[in-house]
């Protein structure tokens, strides 16, 4: 499983290219919905020196805006070298495909998003040669969707919004609204969404919350990731049971024991430790190492 939110923030556009027109509307720029699309190779490397890859590259064909290229970049932090790379991407894509490029940068924190949204001018101050102006989606401008009815209106947009709000204090309500809708969504559509959100939560505390919601609310789904998430949720619950039994019996639990229990992902092993916790004379005794 790819744990980085980076993948989810751009790959969702490969699965739902029509999402760009809705995101651009949220950002105040009205692009027509695509009538067709093509996922293009993301390798922008020249024959020699430096390897350059845009995260996701799409050709979108529309009735209102004609055909254009959409480059999607997931940006996790401020990087002073990125604007020059993005300008290179735009020039290269225009030269190679003879289509106008649009750059969408997706972020999970407001500071990075505001940094990425600032126009960058290239050239001498008296006569700038060009100006880079990416569209930026982040927690500062993506909708905060906590209503299942709103999720149902646009599942792809709600998914991206949830990913950009991974650290929001209301993330519990956001993710609960997602599972409420995914319960009634066909598996062919819901399973990739489950994966995108799992990736998008990354190593944030919201990742554990999503695992628990998948294990409980989406227990009948059978995608590889949902099975993995449910196993993790069961292991976490069983580990809590072990520690609870020891605490109820008044047995002191050293930090080393606590870490070993909570760090175990094997449900069968945890079950064995749980049975031993009922009668063990000490916390260490549940492991049966001796």
From TrEMBL:
It comes from the Bacteria. This is Transposase (putative) YhgA-like domain-containing protein. The lineage of its organism: Bacteria, Bacillati, Actinomycetota, Actinomycetes, Kitasatosporales.
């Amino acid at each position: 499983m790819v744990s980085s939110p980076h993948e989810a923030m751009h790959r969702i556009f490969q699965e739902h290219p029509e999402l760009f027109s809705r995101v651009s509307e949220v950002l105040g720029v009205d692009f027509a919905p695509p009538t067709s699309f093509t996922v293009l190779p993301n390798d922008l490397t020249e024959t020699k020196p430096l390897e350059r890859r845009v995260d996701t590259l799409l050709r979108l064909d529309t009735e209102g805006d004609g055909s254009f290229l959409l480059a999607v970049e997931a940006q996790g932090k401020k990087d002073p070298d990125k604007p020059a790379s993005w300008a290179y991407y735009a020039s290269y894509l225009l030269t190679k495909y003879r289509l106008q490029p649009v750059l969408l940068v997706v972020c999970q924190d407001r500071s990075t998003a505001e940094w990425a949204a600032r126009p960058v001018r290239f050239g001498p101050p008296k006569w700038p040669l060009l100006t880079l102006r990416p569209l930026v989606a982040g927690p500062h401008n993506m909708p905060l969707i906590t209503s299942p009815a709103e999720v149902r209106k646009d599942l792809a947009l709600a998914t991206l919004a949830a990913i950009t709000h991974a650290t929001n204090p209301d993330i519990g309500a956001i993710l609960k609204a997602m599972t409420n809708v995914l319960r009634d969504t066909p598996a062919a559509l819901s399973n990739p969404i489950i994966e995108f959100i799992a990736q998008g939560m990354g190593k944030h505390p919201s990742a554990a919350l999503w695992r628990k919601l998948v294990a409980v609310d989406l227990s009948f789904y059978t995608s590889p990731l949902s099975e993995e998430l449910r196993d993790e949720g069961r292991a976490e619950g069983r580990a809590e049971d072990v520690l609870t039994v020891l605490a109820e019996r008044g047995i002191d639990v050293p930090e080393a024991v606590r870490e070993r229990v909570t760090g175990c992902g094997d449900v069968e092993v945890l079950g064995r430790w749980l049975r031993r916790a009922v009668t063990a004379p000490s916390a260490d005794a549940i492991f049966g190492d001796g």
